[in-house]
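TA notes, week 10

Several of you asked for a full example with nothing omitted. So below is the full record: structure tokens for the whole chain, then the designed sequence directly under it. When grading your own attempts, check the secondary structure regions first.
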């Protein structure tokens, strides 16, 4: 079974989605299940995990309802206020919904450079394992050193790194991202989504050759047991089509044995998110 471990839905609003700038005009519109269902059918994908795009409980509830209504949505990575004193109340309430598979916070957008090291945030993270929830790590490459310190505090929590930590692909820079990824990957409780790469390069002039060194690093660092295919649809559409991205991922792992390719393209997502 092929699982897309990372995509988004939204009803577009220019205020709620103000990060969609003029260079990304193509995604300034609604993206809903009926749009994605046709797309994944054409690409041969069996199911998806829907990931939060706004930091609101309201959106989490909406995504869970979409998942209830659409069988191809196998799970949701939502958002809950992890820094709140009463976060356990929310966790008790929403984790009863078996379609909630994990949580995410947009750490890359936090003004506090040490947000992920805050005591209140880490208290919230420490409660997730009890509720069998994965935590998706959304950062940019300069936040990797703090991410390593953060992960070290939670050796029993299942973490999944989004978008290979957004390296500076557009600048052709491998270091220090490479060394930090290699260090983070030493933590066996951390997996990584092969996603979001084309949008870290130039939208119009990126090449597969430009991306290959970054594929090579994560393949070596995490291995086939801890890598997951993700499309980052519809964000990916500013630089490539859904099927083109999936074909590129498949090509990048084509030298691996078939059993390892199957893990990356779906089995790891099924296992980690308990789909």
């Amino acid at each position: 079974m092929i699982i897309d471990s990372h995509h988004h839905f939204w009803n577009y609003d220019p205020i709620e989605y103000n990060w969609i700038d003029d260079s990304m005009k193509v995604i300034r519109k609604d993206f809903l299940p009926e749009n994605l269902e046709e797309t994944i059918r054409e690409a041969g994908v069996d199911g998806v995990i829907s990931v939060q795009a706004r930091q609101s409980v309201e959106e989490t509830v909406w995504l869970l309802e979409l998942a209830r209504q659409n069988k191809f949505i196998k799970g949701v990575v939502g958002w809950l206020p992890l820094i709140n004193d009463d976060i356990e109340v929310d966790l008790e309430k929403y984790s009863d919904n078996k379609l909630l598979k994990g949580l995410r916070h947009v750490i890359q957008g936090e003004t506090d450079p040490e947000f992920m090291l805050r005591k209140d945030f880490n208290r919230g993270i420490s409660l997730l394992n009890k509720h069998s929830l994965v935590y998706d790590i959304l950062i940019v490459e300069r936040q990797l050193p703090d991410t390593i310190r953060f992960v070290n505090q939670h050796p029993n929590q299942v973490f999944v790194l989004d978008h290979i930590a957004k390296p500076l692909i557009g600048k052709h820079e491998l270091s220090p991202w490479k060394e930090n990824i290699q260090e983070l990957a030493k933590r066996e409780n951390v997996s990584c989504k092969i996603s979001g790469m084309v949008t870290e390069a130039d939208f119009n002039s990126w090449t597969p050759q430009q991306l290959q060194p970054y594929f090579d690093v994560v393949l070596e660092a995490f291995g086939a047991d801890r890598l997951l295919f993700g499309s980052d649809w519809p964000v990916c559409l500013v630089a490539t089509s859904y099927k083109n991205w999936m074909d590129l991922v498949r090509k990048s792992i084509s030298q691996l044995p078939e059993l390892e390719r199957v893990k990356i393209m779906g089995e790891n997502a099924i296992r980690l998110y308990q789909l």
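The radius of gyration is 17 Å. Use that as a sanity check on your answer.
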